[in-house]
Design goal:
By secondary structure, this protein is α+β, with helices and mostly antiparallel strands. The protein folds into two domains: 218 residues, no CATH class; 148 residues, no CATH class. 27% of the residues lie in helices and 10% in strands. The protein has ten helices and ten strands. The strands form three sheets. It has a six-stranded antiparallel beta sheet, with helices on both faces. A two-stranded parallel sheet has the order 1-10.
Length: 426
């Protein structure tokens, strides 16, 4: 089935709401002495895999059509169920991408892999605990000892306003223009858990049950004068992508709606982690250079960070959401869990994404590696909100039960949680 919608209608709908990113840009050079993004040492998942390949500890297997894809996913511990399929021309190998040959994106908490059938390289984005997101490619040619090579050409798109001025991740909802329009990628917007559901996933396949929800997934635009032009007020629901295109070489028949929701949540939080870390390092550097002593805690950025971490401005779900690939079950099983068996990875999918409104990304190595002033500012702001001290109306979305559960889970599962995180009473 091939559904088409009018470009004009989509333009109006997406233009109605402009999503404010909520914080300023990092304005110093990525190669400032205290950052040294281009030359500083890295210890991200891709670099660790490279060392294992060099030492012969890990070997990659080359397969027909998909090349090293399955082997790389196994080595990086990325689940196949995380596959998300995008057919907008928004990648290094854009000329190969279309609805009949979508790009497959697989991800874990701190690393993502992109594969294009017929492409000459795998694309890897890994979140380094200090340096932010670092980009690599792996040639899709059999080799005795393959290596991932750093590729800063990706920064042409992945270092921008939308990534907060740091090397980061982008989750786009685009107008899927006719295939001969090479500039279609530029039309659309950026998506995270704050964006209204109806505006998400333009240019993506979406499988699973969205309930009553409308979205832009699974839609293809043709010129308005085409005779088969139709419109739709309901989401195109797919149990799988079987029959939508030739799936030879793809590792899964799904582009799971739950995986898409998780990916768009964590992409922006990844950028926030990098930004607050870089800002704090810069402030400490300038303090050392001037000899002044004072508070360098990035409180404004910390407030934005915590609002996002706690899903304060999350767009409500229009009804029950159900995935199709088993991603949700595999995701939840990763834990960690508290003494009552509760986890920040548990889903709600009725009213909101997560059952307990605090992001699982608080467990990432990059969060743990934040400079002490940054982490201190984050924890202080978290406690203000979770304890009920923050009186602003916008925090009323976090119920007493929500706040109590989040604090209890963190007290059992987050080793460096400050002692002042005590049971919440009001």
């Amino acid at each position: 089935m091939r559904l088409v919608v009018a470009l004009a209608a989509m333009t109006v709908a997406l233009a109605v709401v402009v999503l404010a990113q909520g914080t300023g840009l990092f304005r110093e050079s990525r190669d400032h002495p205290t950052i040294a993004y281009s030359t500083g040492p890295v210890s991200d998942a891709a670099e660790k895999l490279n060392r294992q390949l060099q030492q012969g500890v890990v070997e990659l297997t080359f397969e027909p059509t998909s090349g090293y894809l399955r082997s790389v996913l196994d080595a990086l511990r990325i689940p196949v169920e995380s596959q998300a399929l995008v057919f907008s021309k928004t990648a290094l190998q854009a000329h190969r991408i279309n609805p009949r040959n979508p790009r497959a994106v697989f991800f874990a908490d701190s690393v993502a892999v992109g594969w294009v059938r017929g492409g000459n390289a795998l694309e890897v984005a890994a979140h380094d605990p200090r340096q932010g997101v670092v980009f690599y490619t792996l040639d899709q040619e059999p080799a005795s000892r393959p290596q991932l090579r750093r590729n800063d050409n990706c920064l042409a798109c992945h270092l921008a306003w939308a990534t907060l001025g740091v090397p980061g991740l982008l989750m786009l909802t685009t107008f899927p223009m006719p295939e001969d329009d090479q500039y279609a990628y530029a039309m659309g917007g950026f998506s995270d858990h704050r964006r209204p559901f109806v505006e998400r996933w333009g240019g993506w396949y979406v499988t699973g049950n969205p309930g009553r929800a409308r979205h832009f997934g699974n839609l293809f635009v043709q010129p308005e004068n085409e005779p088969d032009m139709t419109g739709s007020d309901v989401a195109v629901q797919l149990a799988s992508v079987d029959g939508q295109f030739d799936t030879e070489g793809y590792l899964s028949l799904h582009s799971d709606i739950v995986a898409l929701m998780v990916l768009e949540h964590q992409a922006y939080l990844t950028n926030l982690i990098t930004k607050i870390g870089w800002e704090t390092r810069l402030a400490l550097y300038e303090q050392d250079a001037s000899g002044r002593i004072g508070d360098v805690a990035p409180r404004e950025t910390a407030a934005t960070f915590v609002d996002y971490l706690l899903f304060v401005d999350e767009a409500s779900l229009p009804g029950p959401i159900r995935g199709s690939s088993g991603f949700a079950e595999a995701f939840v099983a990763q834990g960690p869990s508290d003494r009552l068996g509760r986890s920040l990875r548990e889903f709600d999918l009725e009213r909101r994404l997560m059952r307990y409104p605090c992001s699982y990304m608080i467990y990432t190595e990059a969060f743990d590696a934040l400079p002490p002033p940054a982490k201190s500012a984050i924890y202080q702001r978290m406690w203000q909100i979770l304890s009920g001290e923050a009186g602003e109306e916008r925090y009323s979305t976090l119920s007493l039960a929500d706040r109590q559960a989040v604090v209890e889970i963190l007290r059992d599962t987050k080793e460096d949680l400050p002692e002042y995180f005590q049971p919440v009473l009001r």
